[in-house]
Prior knowledge:
Layout: H1 12-28, H2 42-55, H3 61-75
Helix pairs in contact: 1-3
Amino acid sequence: MRFVRQERPPGKANVLGLGRRITGSNAYAAGRDRLVGEHWDPNSTLLWLENYCSKDPLATFFTAADDFRRALAIKEGVQRKDTP
């Protein structure tokens, strides 16, 4: 049997990491905030992350994940744009 190395699709680890971060944040949230990202799409998530990182290349992954969760909350009507 031969070992064949298979490359991971680009960005897959980042999308999984974002999902884990959102899940963790939701665990500490209350009310409707616990369901943020319930219907998120991994493909659009990767695009969002690429755009975010190109605009702010020095941002940490945690900052990006928190901003992504906030963007989802606004999109889903759980949070208003003018609240932190």
